[in-house]
Design goal:
- The radius of gyration is 33 Å and the shape is flat.
- The strands form 2 sheets. The chain has a 4-stranded antiparallel beta sheet, with no helix packed on it. The protein has a 4-stranded antiparallel beta sheet with strand order 3-8-7-4, with no helix packed on it.
- The protein has strands at residues 2-7, 10-14, 19-23, 32-35, 38-42, 47-48, 57-77, 82-101.
- Helices cover 0% and strands 43% of the residues.
- By secondary structure, it is mainly β.
Length: 159
């Protein structure tokens, strides 16, 4: 099953477990938000909205709030010594689509629990094992000595 949603003036085709970046949406990281503007619900029998599908929504988990790439607007008027440089970065929300809902249903899937980083266990040595050999260090490459020119003899100039 898929859906076409509209948010931030753009349309996105989404399926469950999709991760997408949209314009900033209010919501804390880790919460579930409902996107109500569903234009099409597809599947075995697709439903087209006029303009939206009644009672349909898409539930998504907020993964992150971040800023987009920098866009630089540089304007120059030639021969006038007039220049204007202005930078801009969009506010972006990263969403993971959890489920596509119809018939005014409420989201049944909550946010995923965060994975905890597992530290690699320290190797335990009993002293019975021989210490591991280290790889031999690379030898420094000697620079070639440049032969200096001998000064020209002045014998011919003293006549």
């Amino acid at each position: 099953m898929f859906a076409v949603i509209k948010t931030g003036g753009r349309q996105y085709r989404v399926v469950p477990d999709d991760v997408l970046e949209v314009g900033k949406i209010a919501g804390d990281v880790g919460t579930i938000v409902q996107l109500g503007e569903v234009l099409v619900v597809g599947g075995d029998t697709p439903v087209l909205g006029l303009p939206t599908v009644a009672g349909a929504s898409v539930a998504a988990e907020v993964l992150d709030h971040k800023r987009g790439p920098k866009v630089i607007a540089f304007k120059k008027r030639r021969r006038k010594n007039s220049r204007r440089k202005r930078g801009y970065r969009d506010e972006i929300t990263v969403l993971r689509i959890t489920e596509i809902l119809t018939d005014n249903a409420k989201p049944s899937i909550g946010p995923r629990p965060k994975r905890e980083k597992v530290a690699a266990p320290a190797p335990e040595s009993d002293g019975d094992e021989a210490p591991k050999k280290k790889a031999p260090a690379k030898k420094a490459v000697a620079k070639k000595a440049v032969a200096k020119k001998a000064p020209a003899k002045k014998a011919a100039a003293k006549k």
